Predict the structure.
Amino acid sequence: MATHKSPGLQTNMDVDYVISYRFTGSDKAKATAQFEKLVHELASVGLATEVRDGVNHSVLIFVKVASEKHLFGEVYRSRVKDWIHGVRPAAPQKEARAALEEEPLHEAERLRIIYQLITNPEEEGGAGITPKEGEWKSVESIFPLHDHEYNKKWIKKWSTRYMLTTEDLDEIRERLGSKIAFYFAFTQSYFSFLVLPAIFGFTAWFLLGSFSPIYAFLASLWCIVFTEYWKHQEVDLSVRWGSRNVSTIETKRKDFGHEKEVKDPVTGEMVRIFPSTKRLQRQLLQLPFALTSASVLGALIATCFSIEVFISEVYDGPLKSYLVFLPTIILTVCMPVLTGVLNSLANRLTEFENYETKGGYERALTQKLFIVNFITSYLPILLTAFVYVPFGSLIVPHLDVFGLTVQPFAENEKQLKTPDTPAQFTINPDRLRKQVIYFTVTAQVVNLCVEIIVPYLKRKGFAKVKKMQSARAVRSGGAVPDVSENDPPEEASFLHRVRQEAELDTYDVTNDLREMVLQFGYLSLFSVVWPLAPVSFLINDWVELRADALKICVEMQRPIPSRADTIGPWLDSLSFLTWFGSITTAAIVYLFSNGGLGPGGKPQDIQTWALLLTIFLYEHTFLVVRWAVRLALSKLESPGKQKEKRERYIIRKRYFDENLSEIHRLPPMSDAKTIVDRESLEEDARESSLGSSRQEDRFWARQKGPNETIQIGSRLIERAIDAVAREGKKSQ
Amino acid sequence: MATHKSPGLQTNMDVDYVISYRFTGSDKAKATAQFEKLVHELASVGLATEVRDGVNHSVLIFVKVASEKHLFGEVYRSRVKDWIHGVRPAAPQKEARAALEEEPLHEAERLRIIYQLITNPEEEGGAGITPKEGEWKSVESIFPLHDHEYNKKWIKKWSTRYMLTTEDLDEIRERLGSKIAFYFAFTQSYFSFLVLPAIFGFTAWFLLGSFSPIYAFLASLWCIVFTEYWKHQEVDLSVRWGSRNVSTIETKRKDFGHEKEVKDPVTGEMVRIFPSTKRLQRQLLQLPFALTSASVLGALIATCFSIEVFISEVYDGPLKSYLVFLPTIILTVCMPVLTGVLNSLANRLTEFENYETKGGYERALTQKLFIVNFITSYLPILLTAFVYVPFGSLIVPHLDVFGLTVQPFAENEKQLKTPDTPAQFTINPDRLRKQVIYFTVTAQVVNLCVEIIVPYLKRKGFAKVKKMQSARAVRSGGAVPDVSENDPPEEASFLHRVRQEAELDTYDVTNDLREMVLQFGYLSLFSVVWPLAPVSFLINDWVELRADALKICVEMQRPIPSRADTIGPWLDSLSFLTWFGSITTAAIVYLFSNGGLGPGGKPQDIQTWALLLTIFLYEHTFLVVRWAVRLALSKLESPGKQKEKRERYIIRKRYFDENLSEIHRLPPMSDAKTIVDRESLEEDARESSLGSSRQEDRFWARQKGPNETIQIGSRLIERAIDAVAREGKKSQ
């Protein structure tokens, strides 16, 4: 942000997208031929281009829409397509111009449509340019330019406000698309909800201490209400943002392999399909994947945990204060390797499951990654709470083997000697609390710093290195001419910043969402250990929301807007964590009910049946409460669903008025009264009916019209009442 | 069915409905005035009437539609209304006549619409005649006439077939309405599914005996698959029968008390509302209701159970073989009284909850009645399995108190003496199995007989009594003249049968559904005790399906068709029973794992932790499997949902073709290519742009059209590759 006053930040030169084209190797002809094709493809969909030098073997192609009028046609078509597929309940106005005036085109929609124009396959009317894929490997990135003026205002506004309003979220949706807006909406909802557990967490910490059943129940209840509330909120927001059911028109994956082509039973078009039964079979592979992940990561974490326990609580030799970091180092080295392997395995597995759409692929991948994340995030605390604390004194004596790791440092065998009898060893009862504090405070702060400060330093560092390199090159006389040398002076500062933006990372909202969901997990699973956790989260999330905005503005390329109607599979993760929380919370509350000390390594102190009964009762209370909360929430009208119903009603009404107006000309049944009455007049007809051959006609001809029915009926009634009266008298 | 050859059964005289008007008291003027009003009201909505004598102070009013043409208008309006409210995805044809030809009017729709015409309030275009309510207390019943020819064929067809097809169900829907069709569809699905557990139940019984964990798992799995399958089947059927979302246009309750009138946010009409938050508060009263029911019924059942145990296993005096029936007698006497009280309490509670629609009221009432049914059906077995068997020898010694009940019969104190030590007493391990057999075989058969044979005998008996009475009356000379005396001879047999049908009960499908769901409960909860239960159910249900058809044809008035898109709250009961079954099954399998003998009254033989762990693991396996089954089923395309999607697509498409065709005139973006290319021609414009005051214009004017971009870009690429090559050479 150092160059804020730079004139290059004041205008985007009407550029819609910048394409960074990188040529590798030295084959000039190939590089220029591909470049030529790229520009022709862009021109073929009505995009004007300008080219400038880029850094590191690349040129930058600036793209803008050649004709706004033609773009409007594209926008209108996209909106009609949305409606046909049920994304919007109401059809756009009949007249394209009127439709655009009624619903103005906002930036995110514009950028999304242009991006589709660039990347969609040619048969769908796009240029078919897929960055980093297949033929277009040399297209390194396609990105819109930041609106620095706006960004500056945005950050300033947010940093001086406590709460974000729905209008703030609407603004994000209009500039960055509903997918990113959903992340901010979720985090904002979560943040506002956090005020409650922060209050009763603080009160509980002050009055009740840790492991309070009252706090545990309130926290579980809060988790349920928040999760269920968010589900409704999602529907509301997706209706508000016109992106409901958007997943039905997701972009197809190029790699999707179809087995056969069939006629779509809905639209009648030919579609390529892959049988879902076959996919279900392939999805079963997730089971071994989950087991492998759990055992591999579990083994690593358990080993490091054991080494740590050994060093901190058994080892008594020199360098102890340094050696305790050994397991952390092992983890830091091995964990990324392992998770890397598992992630690529997850990728290949998802590839194998052969999803048709990008959305489907992402969802399936996220589900798999959640398993890995779950283990790395929560297993350490789970081990402490449910293995170390209850069984510590039984297990620690068997930790001799880990003596190997520190043997080189030990001066004698005694320093490595584990206690022979459980009695000699006492567990460290504070370990659980410390660990929870570490994960809920320290790790969160560290994360935040890593997210914001590290990329900043990295950028600064790289810039410095580059400067030094070119200085050295100049000194040695063999300088590659700086790309900016040939820039027209009035464009220099603009091009300088575009080159900087081209080097930035792309923003992936999934990572930020994952962070929030994992944080929610700590609250749901372990906050009973240390009720101040929600307070820490509350503070952290206030900063997080702003930091993420800042990150998008400064550290990342401007994201390409895309649409969403949910936070996706993370929603399932939320539900799962809430549920799992009911089990861990119950278990922790029971295990540490003796003044927070826990069974202290003596499993014989635990009444297994009482533990299981606690879990059983707590979990079922949880399920009943969740059912009640769901029921209650479903009864409340939500503005989004109402809007949807109204729009659906209006379109039917409109169709009705336009096409079914004949209905008003249809006579109501009450008009038939005249026919009923008329019958009495048609004496002749009646006579003939009585002589009719159809006994049905004779039956209906006996009484002519309602008046005769009344006459005869009254006579029947009177006679019957008389008969009863006679009978009554007789029996007296 | 004795009068099958009677000519009165061959025609319904074109009658649509028969109204039985009963006059009480001796006020002739009042009785005839109300009668007059009734006929006028009917005529006012275009219904023709004939009146005839009825039995026991009543007249029968025969009603038929005066004009078929007017009725068609009514039908068309009803279909359009369905579509406006989203019940049908596609609007009917624009032309009413064409619409009726495309979708012919079937009997159930006709009768439903005429019934609405009679009963709907006047402001909605009906005659406002509500039988047995308010002003129309004297209208005893409104019923259509049986089609005896058809019924005969129906029963004959069903009784010679093993399986029912979807077409059979369609036929029911067309004649009796989708609500009753849903009951038959459910029972048929359940029956077909039962083949599986019958097979592995029989195998398990043969090979593995009772309490087999393998059978338990298979049965639970079956319960999950069936419940989840049925949920999908419901959607399919409701789409097939055009009744999806029909609950949105339910008829309003007259007793609904509104708090305020607000404008409907969807339709813009004024609607009366009762705040749902207030209703939620009132619904909380269900909690004390459930507790009261449980404790009152529980106490009665537990007492009778204890008395039975005391008499059969402690008492040793005379008349023992008769006295064992004492608890059954107490139950038979007290249970109906108690359930009657609870049912009326449930009614009043539901009344208080103030539902807007009849459907809402029924749902809420059914939920409450399920609680009562659950306790009366399953508590006896639950007591045996989880109280008597494990704790028997601890409890039986305390049963002295029940000695009081048989003290009058005992000859000495010793006969009433309970064993002093638990060792002296051995429980009867066969009691559980016997009880399950009783509930799954004996009780089912008894029920079936009660349903079919008792009403038959009752009818025959009443007829005989009546004959005898009138014979006596004739002898004593004071005969009330028989109503049939004045019948025209050719109508005599027809009127005779109508008078018979008027005396029949009305059919309530809820009772039959409840029976099936409770049967499913025995299978889910206890069939592991006696794996032959599903075999018994399979046989029973084959008969049940036919018996119910027979019941509707012979024992009951022809039901008034109504629509439904679900079996309603019974679906929730199914899910609940499946879940609860996972808990009881696990507990039973563990408790009786020692060769089926159970803990034999010695609770010290039970490892509580092992019991709880079994339940915990089994229940969670159940939940995971259910989740997987749900996921898998949701992936499979169902014909119903597809049909719905297609119709929704078609209507949008039609609207699109009719109204949005302008879109084809909008030029695609690729047309803008000419604009991009043209730029290169407009040299002058470019020149002037370069001199323009807007730097954005100057930026875009530097390269004229794609060709120049390609030229310049290629030059940039070549230069960069050259530079690298130079650099490379230098460093060699």
